[in-house]
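Q: Got a minute? One more chain.
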Amino acid sequence: MENEIKVGFETASLDDSEPPGSLVAKSNLNIIKEKQKLSLTEPVNLGSFFISRKQKFEIVSDIEECRKLWQELAKPKTLFDTWEFRYAFYLGYGFKPYFLVLRSLTKNLAFLPLWYDEDEKKYVWFGSSWQEEVRFFAKNPRHLSDLIAAAPSPLFLNALSLEAARSLDQSLDLIPDDAKYILKLKDFKSQEDYLASLKKNDRRNLKKDRRKIQDQNPQIIINNFADFDQLVALSKKRLAQKGDKADWEDPRRIETFRQVIKLSGHSYQARMISIKIDDRIAGVDLICLFKNTYFAIKCGYNVVEFSGIGNYMNLLEIDDAIKLKMEKIDFLQNNYTWKSKLFESIPLFKYEK
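A: Always. Here it is, folded:
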């Protein structure tokens, strides 16, 4: 890539915080423990209960025990299956874990990782409903119906993967959720190959936006994680211009993604691409690399001053992902009126009770 500056490719870190496995980030955990004192309105249902002589359910809320369960039964296939990514949300929000565990006399069979969302007043995924393409963690799918039946109410399980949906009892009433969007890269050697695969009008519009930015001699900066603050500021400003409210208005969301960056290097690798034009930040993207997938996680663009920056960044990321030998780019959930024109949609499902 032209005009590219690399900053600390291997290690993404905003400070010297310890990884979650060691649990020595004591200041963060002390804050969380304070936040986790049960309010009078929060349901309390801790302990264990038997479903047969050989099996029982238990509720686990100790974060270290939750981590051990995750490491034992979760076999991560996507970024959202990794302990570190979910743990980042725990450090940001501090909601009390509610891991519903099915155990035999000798071993753990399955678990449903939840927490009680004190804002929404319902049980959701551990790590919040921001997670997607979520799977269940069980040694045998036949245990899942028991888990769902025993789960507390009100319960909201969103963004279930097709694999997870197929593993559930067909009597459960699953509802289609917003789709997610991906781009498979196996047939592409560069963004030019991708552009050639599009309809004429879409290809023309993307090339037009690319040319607008290229004519301004953009500077591409890799892994300057200090630009996270710029990403947040640009995103908030852009959404305000559209009359929308950014999730960044909640300081817990900002802290969560700071932790996503800090916890990089254990199961996934964080990556950041910043674009500077005339010493001004035009756009910042936060990416996570897991296995062979390039996850476009968060972005902030100065669209008013640099029209076309969003499409330019998408094309740039296609080249970046190919260079890194990724097999696909995950552009996440929700269409936002444009993703369906450019990428493949993947169905997701949700369940409520």
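A: The CA atoms of residues 115 and 261 lie 22 Å apart.
Q: Perfect, thanks.
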